[in-house]
């Protein structure tokens, strides 16, 4: 069977997107933690 380059590219793209989900989730957690730290600092400063 001949390999279809479009199908191979599509499968590769899906694999990359699936792997990227963990990265995006981790980045979201980092942003949330940063926001909480800023909020705590502002409260301590009396803002």
Automatic annotation (TrEMBL):
Pfam families: Entericidin. Residues 1-26 form the signal peptide. Keywords: Cell membrane, Lipoprotein, Membrane, Palmitate, Signal. InterPro entries: Entericidin. The keyword Lipoprotein applies. Belongs to the EcnA/EcnB lipoprotein family. This is Entericidin A/B family lipoprotein.
């Amino acid at each position: 069977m001949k390999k279809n380059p479009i199908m191979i590219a599509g499968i590769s793209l899906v694999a990359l997107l699936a792997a990227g989900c963990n990265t995006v989730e981790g980045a979201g957690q980092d942003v949330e933690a940063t926001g909480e730290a800023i909020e705590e600092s502002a409260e301590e400063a009396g803002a």
